[in-house]
Amino acid sequence: MCPLTKDSSGAFPASRCPTVAVWAGWFAVAVAVSSLLSVFLSGLFLACAASCWLLDMLRSRRWTLRLPPFGLWLLLYAGVVVVAVVVSPDPWAGLRYLKKLLRFLGILLLYTYAARRQVLWGFALVASLGVLSAGWGLVEYAGWKEIDLLHRVDGFMSHWMTFSGQMMVITLLLLSVFLRRPGFSWNNHRLGRLTLAAGGVTGAAVVVTFTRSAWLGLAVGLGFLLALERRKWVLPGLLGLVLGFYLLPYSFHERLASGLDLKDTTTQGRLELLETGWEMVRSHPWFGVGPRLVQRTAVELRGRRFPEEIYQHLHNNPLQIAAETGLVALSLWVVWWLVIARDLWRIRRVDHEPAATAASGALAVLVAFHVMGMFEYNFGDSEMFALLGFCVTAPYILASSVAVEGGRPAGSKGTDGGEPEVAVEATVV
Fold first, then answer.
1. Are 14 and 113 spatial neighbours (Cβ–Cβ below 8 Å)?
2. Which of 163, 212, 264, 310: disulfide with 157, CB 3.0–4.6 Å?
C-alpha cells in the first residue's frame, strides 16, 4: 500500500520518480484545459496521464491510484454500466460506450497526482482559453459566419451545444472569483475587474448561441451563486438579466418563446422523446435497453410523427441514463452528484482561499450543468464532462493542500462537538 503522505503542494507523491508524478499531474490538468480546443487533444492528454500512471506503478511497484471522497459512487455507477452492457440485447454495440468510462480515469488521475499549483494554473488556462473561444464566437456572430438555427456560433468547438455549455461553466467560474474577491473594491482590485469583464465576454457568447438550455442553466446558476455569496444582489442581478434580455433583438425573444409554445415543432419533438424514453424505462427498468441502443429501441416504441434521427439521444440526462442503463445506475448517478454537492458545500464553509472560491464556483457549475441537462444530454458530451470533472475535483485538491501547508483553515471546527471538517483525504484503492 502507498503512504498517505503529501508534499508541501498538496500532491500525492507515491512515485519513487517525482518527475513522473509531476508530469502525470500536468497531463491530468491538460485533459480539462485541452477540452476547450479538441476532444481528440483531450483524449491524447488522458492517454499521456495514464501512461505516466502505469510507469509510476512499474517504477514504484505499488498501486498508486487513489479515490476522491466521491470515488466509490463513481466506481459503483461505472460497474452497473458495465453490467448493463453485458446483459443488453447487443453487448457488442455497448462496448463502444465503455470508452466513455475512461473519462472517469481522468478524474482519478487528477486527484491522485495534481498539486495545488497545477490546479491553479489549470483554472487560469481554462479561463484564458474560454475567453478566446468566446471572442471567436462573438466574431462569428458579428458576421464572419452565416448564422441560423442549424449553423450557430460554436467558437473553437464543432457544435454549438458543447460550446454553449463550456461558456456557461466558465462564466460561472469567473463570476465566482469576482463575487468572492476579499474586500472587493472596483478601484483597487484589478483581478475583480478582469474576471468581471471576462465573465461578460463568455456570458455574451452563451447568449448568441441561441441555446435555450444553456440560457436557463446560466440564469439559474447565476441566481444560485448570488444567493451563496451576495444575497442582496440576487434581485438586482436577476432583474438585470431580464432587462438585458429584453433589450436584445426580437430574434432572441422569439427563440425563447418558441420553447414555451406547445405547438412548436421542436417542443413537440422533445415531448415525444420524453414519452418514448419513459416507455423504455417502464419496459426495461433495472438495466435499461442497453448503452447505444436507444435509437434502435425507439423504432418499436416511438410515435410516428417524427423521424428516427431525433432519437440520437433523449435530450435529458436522467431519462437517457435510466433508458440506457436502468434505474439502478440512475440512482447511483444521483447519489454521486449529491455527495459531491455536500462536500463542496462543506469546503466552501471552511472559508479558506482558494479552496472556498473553487468550491463556490463548482457548486454553481453543478447546478447549471444539471439544469441544462434536463433539456440536453450534456453528460454524454466528453468535452463537457472533462471540464466538469476538473471543476468539481479541484476544490478537494485545494482543500487538501490547505491541510498540508500548516494548520487548520480559518473558520474550520475541530472534533470538540463542532461541525465536522470535510473529508478531503484520499482513500487508497
1. no
2. 163
**69, 396 Cβ separation under 8 angstroms:** yes
Contact 277, 314 (CB under 8 A): yes
31-45, 125-139, 268-282, 306-320: least confidently modelled range:
306-320
In tens, the pLDDT along 92-144 reads 887 888 888 889 999 999 999 999 999 999 999 999 999 999 999 999 998 87
- Cα–Cα separations (whole angstroms), residue 309 to 145, 295, 317, 418: 26, 8, 18, 56
Pairing of strands 66-67, 427-428: antiparallel
Say how far apart CA 370 and CA 377 lie, in whole Å. 10
pLDDT band at 184; cut points 50, 70, 90: very low
Place of cell 435555450: 212
- With contact defined as beta carbons under 8 Å apart, do 64 and 2 qualify? yes
Give the count of beta carbons closer than 10 Å to the beta carbon of residue 61.
7
The better pLDDT of the pair 352, 370 is held by 370
Q: Is the four-CA dihedral 368, 372, 80, 48 of positive or negative sign?
A: negative
3-class secondary structure for the chain? CCCCCCCCCCCCCCCCCHHHHHHHHHHHHHHHHHCCCCHHHHHHHHHHHHHHHHHHHHHHCCCCCEECCCHHHHHHHHHHHHHHHHHCCCHHHHHHHHHHHHHHHHHHHHHHHCCHHHHHHHHHHHHHHHHHHHHHHHHHHHHHCCCECCECCCCCCCCHHHHHHHHHHHHHHHHHHHHHCCCCCCCCCHHHHHHHHHHHHHHHHHHHCCCHHHHHHHHHHHHHHHHHHCHHHHHHHHHHHHHHHHCCCHHHHHHHHHHHCCCCHHHHHHHHHHHHHHHHHHHCCCCCCCCCCHHHHHHHHCCCCCCHHHHHCCCCHHHHHHHHHHHHHHHHHHHHHHHHHHHHHHHHHHCCCCHHHHHHHHHHHHHHHHHHCCCCCHHHCHHHHHHHHHHHHHHHHHHHHHHHCCCCCCCCCCCCCCCCCCCCCCEEC
Neighbours of 295 (CB within 10 A): 15
